[in-house]
Design brief:
- This protein has about 400 residues and is α+β, with helices and mostly antiparallel strands.
- Helices cover about 20% and strands about 40% of the residues.
- It has helices at about 10-15, 20-25, 30-40, 40-50, 55-65, 70-80, 385-400; strands at about 85-95, 110-115, 120-125, 130-135, 140-145, 150, 155-160, 170-175, 180, 185-190, 195-200, 205-210, 215-220, 225-230, 235-240, 245-250, 260-265, 270-275, 280, 285-290, 295-300, 305-310, 315-320, 330-335, 345-350, 355-360, 365-370.
- The strands form seven sheets. The protein has a four-stranded antiparallel beta sheet.
- α5 (about 55-65) crosses α6.
- It is globular and about 65 Å long.
- It comes from Arctia plantaginis.
Length: about 400
């Protein structure tokens, strides 16, 4: 049988067994193959997760539907050469107040910024202002996907979802200290209790998953497992069937109290750091550094780490360059203006390449890398999922102006 006569499903199964480099060469065979391969985004999904297992998950969460898996694969492949590209660094936003938490985490290609009037939002694909301001100065975190928008306040989390059935609950309020939004599932923590809310059910009800015996420092959800990092150096993993496993952080017990921050992908891939302590734990690499230059910000991208230092540098640390008992290599990819240093680092992939956000106490700087300048986004309208998010944010904005929501589902 001629390969061009194969059903697309069969061709896809063949291509999935190759690698990204081979798949890219297949695109250049002919126009028919190029069109077919470009339409098979799930093939690029499988290839991307096979070659960049941890980084691809983070990149997709940050970029949302703005980037197809094909573009994410191209970008992640080029990160190994990022220092060879020229970057464009510019001041993007200036604040009037001194604050360490001006920038909230990028989620689904949206950058929330805390300003005197509340939360202002920017679309990371265009770096343009989103015409919805959330009038809540005490906002701590915002997450959004195709199913819901969640805002973390000092008093709890406010949830708004989009549903077609009129009988379904559309909003709820839960007392919570932190949360993770993953698909149609919402996980949140209240004191030492961990709850789950299924967003596909008619009623927005929370179910207790676990009462933790320790104070909770950080939570993450990955591949069907809820991971909880405690302040006493324990890692608690909870699967969907509610089986629980506990293991210690791979760090000397005497140093656990010095750990201030944790950036985690799952229970086996995380970075712990404070001013002078820098602990890396991954599937392939493991190191503990003391007497490290004072760290002011860090972004863990799975295969590499971006580090902000007190001297205003932004360093790139490739885990592949880490050799046992060898001095690690830290590459400088940017330097902020004199007297400025990053207190928050974040990255979002775009079709043209990644854009890095570095927040100081008073400014937001953006660092753009044009890996593929020919991929300039010429869209004239917002994607459907972004429009749904805007509508949900408008409802949440009105709720916050009225005070505590009238509809409550208290854990």
């Amino acid at each position: 049988m001629d390969i061009n006569k194969l059903p697309l499903e069969t061709l896809a199964e063949i291509l999935i067994k190759t690698d990204g480099f081979t798949l890219g060469k297949c695109r250049r065979v002919c126009k028919k193959w190029k069109a077919a391969i470009d339409e098979m985004d799930y093939v690029w999904d499988r290839i991307c997760q096979k070659e960049f297992r941890n980084a691809s998950w983070i990149a997709k969460k940050k970029s949302g539907n703005e980037c197809r898996w094909y573009h994410l694969y191209k970008n992640l492949s080029m990160w190994s050469k990022v220092t060879t590209f020229e970057s464009n660094m510019r001041e993007f936003y200036k604040f009037s107040l001194h604050d360490k938490s001006h920038a909230l985490g990028i989620d689904n290609s949206v950058l929330p910024l805390k300003d005197t009037r509340g939360i202002v939002l920017y679309d990371m694909s265009t770096l343009k202002y989103i015409p919805v301001a959330v009038p809540e100065k005490g906002c701590l975190k915002i997450a959004n996907n195709d199913y819901a928008t969640v805002i973390l306040l000092k008093s709890g989390i406010l949830l708004q979802r989009t549903v077609e059935q009129l009988s379904f609950m559309t909003e709820a309020f839960f007392k919570a200290d932190n949360f993770v939004l993953s698909g149609e599932e919402l996980y949140f923590v209240n004191n030492r209790d961990i709850y789950k809310c299924d967003l596909s059910k008619p009623n927005l009800e929370s179910k207790l998953m676990l009462h933790c015996d320790y104070d909770i420092k950080e939570i993450q959800y990955n591949s069907g497992i809820m991971i909880v990092f405690t302040d006493c150096g324990k890692i608690v993993s909870i699967s969907n069937d509610r089986s629980v496993s506990v293991k210690p952080i791979n760090c000397p017990p005497a140093w656990v109290k010095q750990i201030k921050h944790i950036c985690a992908i799952n229970e086996n891939n995380y970075v712990c750091y404070s001013r002078m302590l820098f602990q890396i734990e991954t599937d392939q690499y493991r190191h503990l550094y003391l007497d490290f230059p004072p760290i002011t910000a860090l972004f863990f991208y799975g295969d590499f780490i971006l580090i902000g230092t007190r001297a205003g540098e932004i360093l790139l640390y490739r885990l592949s360059s880490q050799i046992y008992k060898a001095k690690p290599i830290f590459e400088t990819i940017a330097r902020l203006p004199e007297g400025k240093f990053a207190v928050h680092l974040d990255v979002c992939e775009r079709r043209t390449g990644p854009v890095m956000v570095a927040a100081t106490f008073f400014e937001i700087f953006v660092l753009e890398f044009d890996f593929f300048p020919h991929e300039k986004d010429n869209r004239t309208s917002f994607p459907t999922d972004k429009l749904c998010m805007y509508k949900r944010l408008l409802i949440l904005r009105d709720r916050l102006r009225l005070g505590v929501p009238s509809i409550k589902a208290i854990a």
